[in-house]
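Anyone? Bumping this.
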Amino acid sequence: MLRNRKALLLLVLILSMVVTLSACGKNDKADDEIRIGVLAPMTGAAATYGESTWNAVVLAAEERNSKGGINGKEIKLFLEDTRLDANEGANGATKLIEQDKVHGIIGAVASSVSMAASSVAQRNEVPMISPTSTNEAVTKQGDFIFRACFIDPFQGYVMAKFAIEELGAKTAAVIYDNGNDYTVGLTENFVKAFEEMGGTVTAKETYAANDQNFSAQLTKIRRDEPDVLFLPDYYNVVGLIARQARDMGIQSTFLGGDGWDSPDLAKIAGPSIEGGYFSNHYSPDNKSPIAEHFIDAYRAKHGSTPDALAALAYDAALVLFEAIERADSTDGKAIRDAMASISNFEVVSGSITFDENRNPVKSAVVLQVDNVHKNSNDEWEAEQKFIKMVNP
Amino acid sequence: MSEALVNFLQQLVNGLQLGSIYALIALGYTMVYGIIRLINFAHGDVYMVGAFIGFFVAGWLGEAAIIPALLLAMIGAALLGVTIERLAYRPLRSAPRLAALTTAIGISLLLENLVRLYVGPNFLAYPEMIKRVNHYFGGVLISNVYMIVFGTAIVLMAGLQYIVVKTKAGKAMRAVAFDKDAARLMGINVDGIISLTFALGSALAAAAGILVGITYGRIDPYMGIIPGLKAFVAAVIGGIGSIPGAMVGGLVMGIAEQMVVGYISSSLRDAVAFFLLIIILLIKPTGLFAEFTQEKV
């Protein structure tokens, strides 16, 4: 009996502590600031994406704060590392919303992570804008979820059309990660478009995340000697596959999506990736005033030329800031409504008008990996050559 | 040769190469288990550290320095293995086995995160230590890299077999594995022999790390987790504690994995290891090459 009473007392004590602590949590969040959460893979297999995304959002927020913030309120950023893991994405979103009490979220980068994070944001009615998640299903999670990039059906279509019309390809093979929403989406849409335009897909091979050895699948692909080999994954895996494919004597032209956009692609793939084509959101050769301003400011602050990840993260930040300003409120519903009404809003990667599924209608560029060479650190380095602009 | 046969032989060649890597790592598991009955979960990370030492040696001496890279990585990993044993496992030698096992997992996490702290979380491109030349044998591609990886693995395993069977130290190792107390009474330096076991196992793992770096061209601080796990399964399949068992277990694993991916589905790549493990445990729980042991009291 005594023990029970002690236990009860302890329970009451703990409960009262929890209540006071959470009360504290609420009180120390000031009302004179705009809190924005960022979900990005700062470590792991897509760490360069996280770095670009975070750098660009920091730049956007600093520029805005130096002009007096949004409606006189200072922007404060909160970063959560998703490690390119869907569970971490959902945890990160929960932490941003419940602990940091953010008013809006920029992220996540990868589609599978955005998918997990967006269900949390939707449930809590916190507006979220993903800079780069191209899988169609991401914004279908609910009306609080937006994105700043085009979607996979478009990207798969662009590359299929490019292969057939510009490269004269008749046969194609695909090798993709069947556990990743991004690569699955790109593959399905590429295959569909390629076959509709009269091409033949000779092989559709799969692998799992973290695989290193693709020799079994590539052995099968090699048999049919396809004109093009579609590699719709992120740079790390593409680098590995490209290298192994060339090592095995596969001569096909490599094609891919925006996942190729990283300086690490050439580092890992070396000369094997030379001449490959990929679709992307923007080209640093773009000469609009806002793009020029962004490229100069980014170079000045971070010392490197921004990639598409950085450009889109900057764009996502601008869209979110604009929505908060228009809403003149930190209420999630008001910000959402303001964001949905944005049209012809000029950003670095073009102009943004959201359709009924909160996807921007935008054009894509096709870039070629060019001039793979060793730099002064004895690492492989490549240039991106602008080939073509494809409109929706 | 018919296309199907070429395909099959190609998968077999690829499987042998993969299997020789698993075998090299599996040897370390099996030797350590044989001698102190510890599943050294940090072993996969010693393999990773070996790959990184090779990476830095090549950065320092130039890309062609495969022999110095291999030697220095093996020596470095051997020292690391001995240090781990001395600092983490020896104080626990008479503690319950679970304590040592938990410590091994702790060491594994420590190594991964130390390397991550030092080199960063990104994947690193491995230097091209061998200029690749492709040779075709009736349509089957066997590049010089395959030959070097497989050849190095075979030479190292033969060397190990020689040390264990023919040398005095090897005899002492076998004696310690058989009965530690009796071995000590016979004047064998048991601690020294255990250190030697860790050194040999770690050196082989480091060699495997470099061979993997050369083959796939990319390394990262977490590269040891899955191969470590699979090599452990390979050791169990071969009969844990048995050196020929680990070699055969590794090759069986590599070929099985390659065939399953090539002919069934790539989604089963990691499942096949554990499927084999279950089959072996059901049919022959002691593994293919069961070491002759009686339960010691």
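Late reply, but here is one note on the structure posted above: Chain B has one domain: 3-283.
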